[in-house]
Amino acid sequence: MHRERPESQGAALNYSLDRLEATREQQVLLASERPGLMPIGWTHPDLRRGRRIHPVLAALTALLLCACSDAGTGPPTVQPPTDNAAAFREVFSVPEDACKSCHPVHYEDWSISMHAYSFVDPVMFRLNEIGQERSGNRLDQFCVSCHSPIASRLGETPPGFNPAGLSRLARQGVSCDVCHKVKSWRKGHGIDEFWMNDFQIGTISDPSPNGVHQSIYDPAFARSDVCSGCHDIVTPNGVRVERTSTEWENSVYPRQGIFCQTCHMPRYKGRAAPSAPVRDSLHSHVMAGVDVPLTDFPGRERMLAAVEKQLQISLSMTVDAPASLVDGDQLRLRVVLFNHNTGHSIPSGSTFERQMWLQVLVIDPQRNDTVFASGLTDPNGDLLNSDSEYVKEGTLPLDSNLALFNGIPLRDGVHTPFFWEAHEVKFRTVPALEERNSIYRIPAGSLTSLTEVRLEVRLFFRAFPPHFLRKIDLAELVDRLPIFLMEEEIKNISIGG
Ligand code: HEC
Ligand code: HEC
Ligand code: HEC
Ligand code: HEC
Ligand code: HEC
Question: Which domains are present in the chain?
Answer without folding.
Answer: 6-223+259-283 (no CATH), 300-496 (2.60.40.10)
